[in-house]
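In response to a reviewer's request, we include the raw inputs and outputs for one of the modeled complexes. The two entities were modeled together in a single run.
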Amino acid sequence: MEHGGEISPVPATPGDAAHTRIGVDDWVAEAEERQRGRGPLVRTVAAIPRPIQIVVFIAVLSLLPFVFSEGNLFRYGLFTLIYALLALGLNVSVGFAGLLDLGFIAFYGFGAYAYAILASPKYGIHWQAEIAIPVVMVGAAFLGLLLGLPSRRLLGDYLAIVTLFFGQAFVVFVNAANPKGLTGGANGIANVDPLNFFGFKLTTTRHYYWFTLIAFLLVIGALYFISESRTGRAWRSLREDPLAAEVMGMPVNRLKIMAFMFGAAIAGLTGTIFAANQTGVFPGDFDISILITIYAVMILGGLGSLIGMFIGAAVINVSYELLSGSNPNPSLGRWLFYLALITVVIARIRPWIRVAVVLAGTVAFGFAVHAIVHALEPSATSGAVTNGGSLSGVMSHWTVIPAHSGASAKYAYVGLVAAVLVLTLIKGWWRAIALIPVLYLASFVWENLLSEQPAVTRLIVFGAMLIALMAARPQGLLGTSRVEIA
Amino acid sequence: MNLRLVRGRTADVLFYAGIAAVVALLLKEALTNPGHWSLFFQLAVDGVTLGSVYALIAIGYSMVYGILKLLNFAHGDVYMVGAFIGYGILTLFGGAANWTIPVWLLVALMFGASMLGSGFLGVVIERFAYRPLRDAPRLAPLISALGVSFFLQNSALLLLGAQFRAYPFGLIGQGGVSIRTVFISATRIFVIAGAVVLMIVLTVFVRRSRLGKAMRATSYDREAAMMMGIDADRVIASTFFIGSALAGAAGVMFGLVFTEIFHFMGFTAGLKGFTAAVVGGIGSIPGAMLGGLLIGLGEAYATGYVSSTYQDLIVFSILIFVILVRPSGLLGTAAVQKV
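The model returned the following structure tokens for the whole complex.
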């Protein structure tokens, strides 16, 4: 022992502050340590008593329709709730039970198509919503059972691919296969009835918003109780270690299938609302891009968190809509882009002196580059700002916008991706200095390429966000980080 | 990565009997209706061509899975990028009709650039998206892979547009071989032969070379391999390079045979490639080849005898069937869970 190099000191008395307290093992201590590491904003919110939080949350949401116009309510309010509902459903299988379900959108699509068939002129069936919704939810849960049966034996990745294929098969089924004209093929089903409860028809966006809000609150409440119940705890143990859960005597297969069925039923409900509100269903509404969007919502909000799903949905949906080509005020997308860049710089760079250097440096760098390029080749700075708005004056004097950017913007995009990857490899002051031209390059790419194709841009951003979040903060905004003990 | 071809157990015998029954049914269909003979064999040619492409994709999936236990969703998109690199070389040297260099050199350049480019892309993806997550929970790299796939797809859409690009028809040569009524075009012969050569080279490489040995060791037990002095990061990067290069080659082959390429082609091809890997037994290289061939044939016969609408559904049913009766695939070894 004398020659053994470092020997850990003899543990002090159990009451010693440096030592783990009795009854608090390493795991709990580490988890508490992480709780303390949270930012000031989260701590402030967490200090408010839970009932007040809930009341304020509900009050703000239910009053939104009085603030927004119908168009904005549809865009920002209703779709946030729809995404939040979908994310809640997905969260049951992925977040609670740890089953990577990539066919989730098929349940959403099933709900929408089932309602469309049960309440539209297509077959002349016009069911009331109070009957149709439960039937559709049970149907979706049954579909979840069908998918769950072959999947229960599969380990994580096999499950992912089978479910992904299932989602793909659903789109093929409703689009191309269209047996006996059941789903209307590529034309979908039009003229779907609005939701009709005991004769009261939901006709305006406000009605739908309130109804969706009620559904959201019911689902989130139910999930809260489920997640704290025996089943919920069993799901989480299944997520953390399926083998240990099985050894502990948990009915693993039944739990998996139940998780699928719960998620599917919620997706079915959401699909019903979507179909009724859109008064039609089309195969394109249920493709892979919506799956990625829901995954982005769930990952951002934090796997396993409930209210995180709403926050994730709000962030994703609002940014999605701001970047949308159909937004009546397209210059908002530009604000979002630059604010997001500045936020990332402020949040990720320390100490503050570096933040100041980077921001001031970028501004100066931009004007310098603009001046040099303008002196060399005036036509290279004579382009117009796409969807200018209030920032266009500044941008046209700061970012180089050629009259015809041509291929240069595309090369710049590839260069930007490469530059961002290189940035992750360098540290300290070098990173801060290198960030300056990269930020400017980002601005160049945005002005000359991305802002012209908002629909593609937002999907690229979601893809990049999934990668970045997984590397930087896999637990998302509100998820509890997993504590690993070696 | 295991390299055995036959395992000789009762379950295998039953399984091959099942496959033989399907083949017998198809043969009966062809025999009872002599006019169908040529269709039957023509479809077989289609299926083998398609199967070669799927097999090359499946190998990459299987190698990466074998070594990292990671489902690399981005693999299909690497294949798409490979097809576009080949197309880029084609346009660089004179476009669709009048190229400025000999055809053999052009084709060699297309394959070379595509394989190098895709391989490099694979290494970059591994370095930046997967390596930071080496010790993270299993779900994290899967979601990251989903993100990479989506990023690549939409970047291609942004940079190249949504329209189809066409490889010239019959670049290799317009001719071909006719056996009675069955016609095999030169392109198809070239593609099948190319795929076979690549697979043989790969098998020899994995069996004989030092790096191949290191790969097998790492896939068997990464920690133990590292203790034996194997640089696991380098081995994993090489695996990604080789797998992605094969996918790039598959992309060019697809372009040569089926001519039309577009930004979304990687998604379905990736699904089929993975299905092939699972059907063959994931982690097994010969399994990936066999699986690719089966999926290709299944798809060709589904298109020929049923309808092209149902090809994806039929491939899906094959996947479900195999997973139900033989979760470890045709040539895979049953996973023993270690505690």
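As requested, we also summarize the result in words. The longest helix of chain B spans residues 36-68. Residues 1-7 of chain B have pLDDT under 50 and may be disordered.
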